[in-house]
């Protein structure tokens, strides 16, 4: 492809207002809209890969950065041509050229100045909000999308420089209210969600986020290192006619820079390193499946698919379990968990198993993973993926992850009492089912996972919690309209119950572990920082770095809420910043099994009802109505005083005495790692065995 060179003068053009919103699906204007980047920055619009030729003929070809050097040569040749080959002398020539260059430069500067002045004048035009009457008339007509889009742009512009651009008589709130209405109408959100997002982001960034939600995220593959190596997989795919384009490490891209690679489109935004021309060209010129490899470490092996004409979820390699299709963000919690070989690991909410299979690969199929999923229909995909990827260290469980004392209403008392009546059975002998031959167990009776596995029994727990999904709008548009405040509260409530249960299962004295990773694909503070803050107050855990070298720090303050300062160690990921689904990751280290000031069977709901909590509220003093702590250390001091009466082996400071802790551990013994690794298939199912068979068969 012969690249078209952009004139140097064009690159020097003064910046237009970067806050201007890109028109929806406008693929040509981005490079125009933004300021000319420094030599090593790119600013590209969305482009379909098969429109590569269009790009080459476009005067605004965003690839021009690569040809800045070339344009100098052209100018030289041109001026040589003008002066002719028989000029007076070389010195004269040089002087003429120099004058011409100076004049050209002066002209460009004048142009740039004039344009900047024009921009300033345009921008100082204040924007007037529509009157009630105008809005009334507008409501009677079908929505005028271009008008809405223009108004959104104008309001964002006005809000970004409110002092200068506000219209007399209108408040900031008036502008924000109109903006929310217009966004709801134009992008199809409900008022609740837009209200929540407006509270989280400045308007310019809000628009970037909303626009990013309109575009698909890259499809990623994870090489299954239990079956193959990245290089081998790449070779096989190349042989199938797949273009492989190795990108540099994702981690090299700074937090605020984005490598944006999407299906049928590629664009870069404020990338602080120069892309090699060949690297970029091979990206743009692809005409079949093009795959870019990114790898953050020796253990993470990922492939980004951004333009595929082959069904990437149905290749022989896929069927053979050489790779798993999963979003880039779903690598993160497992990387943070960092499971070690021979450990005891729980994946509390596992289906369809993207993260379980990654954990198994990192553990090289050693130790044991309890992959739990509460919803029976989802066990099918979980089991199928474990099989396909050759995972053999995993027990699939079907329990409620919570620690609630309440039995599930749809489960018979018989099923719930199964554990009490259980015996150990060698399933490999009893069952000829290949599932069990592969060491994948399936316990199909309802109970609570923490009760089955016991307390202090696990080295690491991953809680990839059920959530509102507000980070994955580009995958599931229904989230725009289906979520309400009540939904978020319900999710947060369940998440609080699950995180306490997760912590309780972990052995604080684990030699290699003692960690809990909490993640969601929600960007709501109530489902993320607030849940972690809740756990920090109720269990002896501390936040530790996630070990991820990018992502934004979690909130320590959000509106009137104040969280523990260590919340800064959590990580947030956004589509407009990291080109990943909206995601949250936190890593906790369990310090001891004490539960400061709370009952062991506490659930979020119960706690609010118990007198303990009422008393706690009374003693908080400095704690506001909404639960914010004005002085946390003061609160802790008061709380310690309140729970100073030692009971049930609790020390004055609320920590268990080592004696009672020791007794407890003795009472509930978990098999050693060696026992687990060497064990053939044993599973306590007892009277549930026939139920298990039936349910298992129906699932398969
Ligand atoms: C975010 S998804 C998990 C995705 C999975 N970790 C993966 O990477 O493939 C959350 C899962 O939690 C399950 N779930 C919901 N409530 C649960 C509960 N009380 N206990 C255990 N799992 C639950 C949901 O059915 C859902 O499959």
TrEMBL record:
For molecular function, the Gene Ontology terms on record are: RNA binding; rRNA (cytosine-C5-)-methyltransferase activity
State the protein's name.
SAM-dependent MTase RsmB/NOP-type domain-containing protein
Q: Which domain of life is it from?
A: Eukaryota
Give the residue ranges for region: Disordered. Answer: 1-96, 593-673
**Which organism is the protein's source?**
Psophocarpus tetragonolobus (Winged bean)
- Where, by residue number, does S-adenosyl-L-methionine bind? 349-355, 373, 400, 464
Kindly list the GO CC terms recorded for this protein: nucleolus
One Pfam family per UniProt: Methyltr_RsmB-F
What are the UniProt keywords, alphabetically?
Coiled coil, Methyltransferase, RNA-binding, S-adenosyl-L-methionine, Transferase
Q: Which GO terms describe its biological process?
A: maturation of LSU-rRNA; rRNA base methylation
Q: Which family does it belong to?
A: Belongs to the class I-like SAM-binding methyltransferase superfamily. RsmB/NOP family.
* Recorded coiled-coil stretches: 106-165
The annotated regions of Basic residues compositional bias extend over 1-15
Kindly identify the residues recorded as the active site: 521 (nucleophile)
- Key word Isomerase present in the record? no
């Amino acid at each position: 492809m012969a690249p078209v060179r952009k004139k140097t003068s064009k690159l020097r053009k003064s910046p237009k207002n970067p806050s201007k919103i890109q028109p929806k699906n406008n693929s040509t204007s981005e490079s125009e809209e933004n300021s000319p980047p420094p030599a090593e920055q790119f600013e590209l619009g969305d482009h379909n890969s098969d429109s590569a030729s269009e790009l080459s003929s476009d005067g605004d070809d965003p690839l021009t950065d690569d040809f800045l050097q070339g344009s100098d040569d052209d100018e030289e040749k041109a001026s040589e041509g003008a002066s002719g080959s028989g000029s007076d002398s070389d010195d004269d020539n040089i002087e003429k050229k120099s004058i011409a260059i100076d004049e050209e430069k002066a002209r460009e500067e004048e142009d740039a100045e004039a344009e900047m002045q024009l921009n300033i004048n345009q921008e100082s035009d204040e924007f007037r909000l529509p009157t009630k009457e105008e809005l009334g008339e507008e409501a009677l007509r079908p929505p005028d999308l271009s008008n809405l889009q223009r108004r959104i742009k104008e309001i964002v512009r006005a809000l970004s420089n409110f002092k200068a651009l506000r219209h007399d008589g209108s408040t900031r709130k008036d502008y924000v209210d109109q903006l929310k209405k217009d966004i709801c109408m134009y992008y199809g959100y409900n008022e609740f969600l837009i209200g929540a997002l407006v509270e989280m982001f400045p308007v310019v960034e809000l628009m970037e986020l909303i626009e990013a939600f309109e575009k698909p995220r890259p499809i990623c593959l994870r090489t299954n290192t239990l079956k193959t190596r990245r290089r081998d997989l790449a070779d096989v795919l190349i042989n199938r006619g797949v273009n492989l384009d190795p990108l540099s490490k994702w981690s090299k891209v700074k937090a605020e820079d984005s490598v944006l690679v999407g299906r049928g489109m590629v664009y870069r935004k404020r990338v602080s390193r120069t892309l090699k021309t060949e690297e970029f060209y091979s990206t743009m010129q692809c005409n079949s499946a093009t795959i870019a490899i990114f790898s953050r470490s020796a253990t993470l092996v990922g492939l980004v698919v951004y333009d595929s004409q082959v069904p990437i979820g149905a290749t022989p390699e896929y069927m053979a379990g050489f790779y798993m299709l999963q979003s880039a963000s779903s690598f993160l919690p497992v990387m943070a968990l960092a499971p070690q070989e021979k450990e005891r690991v729980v994946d509390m909410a596992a289906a369809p198993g993207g993260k379980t299979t990654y954990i198994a690969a990192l553990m090289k199929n050693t130790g044991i993973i309890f992959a739990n999923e509460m919803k029976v229909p989802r066990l099918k995909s979980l089991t199928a993926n474990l099989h396909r990827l050759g995972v053999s260290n995993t027990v699939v469980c079907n329990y409620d992850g919570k620690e609630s004392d309440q039995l599930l209403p749809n489960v018979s008392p018989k099923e719930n009492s199964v554990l009490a009546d259980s015996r150990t059975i060698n399933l490999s002998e009893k069952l000829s089912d290949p599932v069990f031959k592969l060491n994948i167990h399936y316990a199909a009776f309802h109970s609570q996972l923490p009760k089955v596995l016991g307390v202090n029994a696990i080295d690491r727990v991953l809680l990839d919690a059920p959530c509102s999904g507000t980070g994955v709008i580009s995958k599931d548009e229904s989230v725009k309209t289906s979520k309400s405040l009540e939904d978020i509260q319900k999710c947060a409530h369940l998440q609080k119950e699950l995180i306490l249960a997760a912590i309780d299962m972990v052995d604080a004295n684990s030699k290699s572990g003692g960690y809990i990773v909490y993640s969601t694909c929600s960007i709501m503070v109530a489902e993320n920082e607030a849940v972690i803050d809740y756990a920090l107050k109720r269990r002896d855990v501390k936040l530790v770095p996630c070990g991820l070298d990018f992502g934004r720090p979690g909130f320590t303050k959000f509106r009137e809420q104040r969280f523990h300062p260590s919340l800064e160690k959590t990580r947030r990921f956004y589509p407009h910043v990291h080109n990943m689904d909206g995601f949250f990751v936190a890593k906790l280290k369990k310090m001891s099994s004490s539960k400061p000031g709370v009952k062991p069977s506490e659930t979020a709901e119960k706690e609010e009802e118990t007198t303990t909590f009422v008393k706690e509220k009374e003693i908080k003093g400095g704690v506001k109505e909404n639960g914010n702590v004005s002085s946390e250390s003061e609160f802790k001091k008061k709380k310690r005083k309140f729970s100073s009466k030692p009971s049930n082996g609790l020390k004055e400071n609320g920590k268990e005495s080592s004696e009672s802790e020791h007794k407890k551990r003795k009472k509930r013994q978990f098999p050693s790692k060696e026992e687990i690794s060497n064990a053939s298939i044993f599973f306590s199912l007892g009277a549930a065995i026939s139920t298990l068979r039936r349910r298992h068969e129906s699932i398969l």
